[in-house]
Each structure stands twice: as structure tokens, then as C-alpha cells.
Amino acid sequence: MTDATTDADALYDQANALKEAGNLEAAVEALQQIVAEHPDHMQSHLALGVHLQKLGQIDAAIAHATKVTELDPKDAFSFVQLSVIMQRCGRIQEAEDAMARANAMKMEESA
Predict the structure, then answer these.
(1) Torsion of Cα atoms, 32 then 29 then 53 then 49, to 10°
(2) pTM greater than 0.85 (yes/no)
């Protein structure tokens, strides 16, 4: 693990503490700072997808959830998460497409 990853993980923990304390907006700001400095930090993008969707920032939420699938295109969970966010944002066809991709990956893994 590199120092940059360690730093990003420590900042992520601080952002998560803000969310746990009930300050979702501050958590989002902290996470946005992390991805500005560490654009490949998957956990931050994943959290931003969830939190921004809760705050009604649909396009930004989908962008972060999509970024997770780009960072790890072989991770079925990333596509499940994208599907959930798409569904909650009212983009049903895109949600179904993401879930179909996740299911196809799971079937490939079990074959």
C-alpha cells in the first residue's frame, strides 16, 4: 500500500465519521476533496454515489457510481451498486442494464 493510498484511506475514515455523526453534507465535501487529490480512490467514489443520491444530486451520484465500474470493470458488486443508484434515481432501464451486467459477471465467475 502506498503512502498516497494510506492518506486517502485515513481521509476516507474521517469523511465516514462525519457521515456517522449525521453531517452528510460535510462528509460529501470531504469525499470530494479526496477524489480531487486521489481520483482512483474507489471507496470515496462509491460513498459519493450513495450520499449524493440521498442528497438528490442525481447526475453526480451516477457519475461517481459509474467511475467505480470504470476503476474495477470486473467487480460485479460495482455494477450492482450502480444499478441500485440508477434505480433510486429513476433510471430504470439503465438500472436493469447494470444489474444484467453484474449477473453475467457472476455467472462467468461460477462457470
Answers:
(1) 30
(2) yes
